[in-house]
Fold this sequence. Notes:
heterodimer; A: 20 strands; B: mainly alpha; 14 helices
Amino acid sequence: MSIQLRGVSKQFGEFAAVENIDLDVPTGTLMALLGPSGCGKTTLLRLIAGLEIPDRGEVLFDGKDATLWSIGERKVGFVFQNYALFRHMTVHENVAFGLKVKRRSERPAAAEIRKKVQNLLDLVQLGWTHDRFPGQLSGGQRQRIALARAMAVDPQVLLLDEPFGALDSQVRHELRRWLRRLHDELHFTSIIVTHDQQEAIEVADTVAVLNRGRIEQTGIPGEIYDLPSSAFVHRFLGQVNELPVRVRDGRAFIGPIDIGAAAETLKGDGEHIALIRPHEIEIGQPASNWPGTLVAVRVMGPIVRLEICADGQPIHEPLEAEISRERFDYQPFTVGQKVGVRFRRWQVYPAATLPHSNANPR
Amino acid sequence: MARRFLIGCALLFMALFLLIPLLTVFAEALAKGVAVYFAAITEPSALSAIELTLLVALVSVPLNLVFGIAAAWAIAKFNFRGKSTLITLIDLPFAVSPVIAGLMFILLFGANGWFGAFLRAHHIKVVFAVPGIVLATTFVTFPFIARELIPVMQAQGNADEETALSLGATGWQTFWRVTLPNIRWALLYGVLLCNARAMGEFGAVSVVSGRVRGVTATMPLHVEILYNDYNYTAAFAVASLLALLALLTLVGKSFLEWRQPELRRTGHARDRTARGNQ
């Protein structure tokens, strides 16, 4: 089932949670709605689910206007962050719930329900939990039960609201991979809401980045990371260094370094901001580059993070650079060493587009 | 030492103000023997009082059950204008003296009250009759169930209900299969307290009932009537029934309280071991 949103807006009192959103989710894709808390991603998911009704705009399911359909009519599976398992029912009863509440004429026979539930529990690798109560399971297990329960009614769309948000990182990582495999096997249309860019990049085919109730950018994860369309997206996906850029006589300078001709959009002299990812910084000899002092070296498994206090920069705002472990092993650095910094890539934004309140969420 | 002193004080206070009076009720009731005791509680006007009390509780508790669930549901699960006013209004019967509540009904439904003429014209008796007693009791016990449910329902949020709806359940199915089981202990607790108060209410009922012995006297009123007649043994015999009800309510209440945290505690303990085993 494909989903389209056309000019959807939703307000809560004075607060515009979602504003004029257009979104296309083709059949069979797994899309992530990514953004900081309060950006409207959960509201958007609830609008798609039918848990909220939009003030303006349309929600289309397979091209049909579903704006006023109730959640029951939309045949979506909805999974909450806190699982929302029925605590007074066993795992079996939880998963069977959607089948047992069907009208008598549509309800499968008891034996059939039992078989289907068992199959679903096997699918989420929790067949043995059958007669347990939710309180007896771990968080990761509960979330898998919640997924099995949602799938019991054969939804065509699976909507997941921060499904792994309450779990520790190891379990999250496993569940993400498991969810991706499940999606590939069963060909749902899935939408997952997350504030974790790592999660979005790991599981989704397409990512929509939201900010203040609007979609900033939609695309495949790698593309968004490499070619962010706005300063917000650039900062939200991954780490960045921020440096003021000065434009003088058509040439741009970061610190004392001449980084070349100023981009078309930055005509005119003045102050702008450059965003540089840690891995886009190159460390070389002090002579030919921007000289500075290495103030911290942190080996983090396959990568090594270096902090460099470039000459002329405030001491409490060192640059963050990342180099590969191989490179580091070949040419180790020590704290206090004099180095030279060069930028392999950077992106310049008008200074006004970078409100500091939207600082990197990590 | 300080601990012993404090515990001693508490126990002494309890004995003095709770235990001794309670024992006195039973001692006084049985002072002239078991035969007199049973004669006192099976005498026609006593039976009529018991019957009336049960009837009043039987009507007002279910009324407040329905209202309590509806109000708690509205307050916990929806946002609407006037919500805080509604929450305040629910507490009104607690804030108003029961006697005032009774007078209020007299002013509304009494012979010279707002609806007095209308009621007389249709030959309906509210004040000094059973309907008035039921109304007053319902009013006074209004907050018990709603008050118990609101915090529980607010804490649980809407996720369970929304999930049930997304799985295709109707609103009715969602209520019976998901909401009600989630609130059952709090509901039972509220019903218990509501019932105890409904049977024991004196002030409001005293004003609206007219206290016609054997006709509009509930158990607490009957006790007072007997006492004013210097019929101490009979008064205490009926009082002992009320005291017995109070004791039963307390036992039920502590059973529920014992039961609830028990469920929660084992749930958490198992939760922890389950995670540890993963």
